[in-house]
């Protein structure tokens, strides 16, 4: 039974290390269909042969593992070495990724279920225009940095990846709601639960 009788598709974004995935997990626990742009991106890389060969042409055979599968980690590192490389990767991967994302959203609406679209590039893709409301998760630079180091990223990689994302000030302009994550996990989960209950009553 949907609160307010309406299906609500929530767009969720935030810089790396902000806690966005934790908020998405809470929304999913509370019943939302979880649509991950990262997971769809991985599917595209692993299953789309056209994308595979275009990547080989663009980046060379060094992006392959010994068993000739794609080394996603190495590809990611190469892509973030320069803006030109990042643009090249995005041009190849994003169109089929967004096509699959559209299909996932359409399926969820047909099923009459609430959903959360977890996407760091939600605003760059102008996908904030496609969802019913946009939630931004923010956190202080120091906390984000510490979380990313704990996840195994080296300082140079963190710097390169964050450079490819829009500044928080720009993301705020497109957000309907902001969750600030500068406390502990329990506090973040509490904020996420409260906001989800509010949103599913109608954005």
The mean pLDDT is 90
Rg, rounded, reads: 18 Å
Give the CA-based shape. Answer: globular
What percent of residues adopt helix (DSSP H or I)?
Answer: 40-55%
Distance between the termini: 17 Å
The strand order across the widest sheet is 2-3-1-4-5
Any overview of this molecule?
This protein has helices spanning 20-29, 37-47, 49-59, 72-79, 83-111, 141-150, 155-163, 168-174, 185-199; strands at 9-13, 33-36, 115-118, 133-138, 177-180. α1 (20-29) crosses α9 (185-199). It has a five-stranded parallel β-sheet with strand order 2-3-1-4-5, with helices on both faces. The longest helix is centred in the middle third of the chain and has 29 residues, at 83-111. It is of the alpha/beta class.
Tags for this model:
203 residues, alpha/beta, 5-stranded parallel β-sheet, 54% helix
Please give a quick description of this structure.
The protein is α/β, with parallel strands linked by helices and 203 residues long. Helices cover 54% and strands 11% of the residues. The protein is built from nine helices and five strands.
List the helices and strands and how they pair.
Blueprint: E1 9-13, H1 20-29, E2 33-36, H2 37-47, H3 49-59, H4 72-79, H5 83-111, E3 115-118, E4 133-138, H6 141-150, H7 155-163, H8 168-174, E5 177-180, H9 185-199
Parallel strand pairs: 1-3, 1-4, 2-3, 4-5
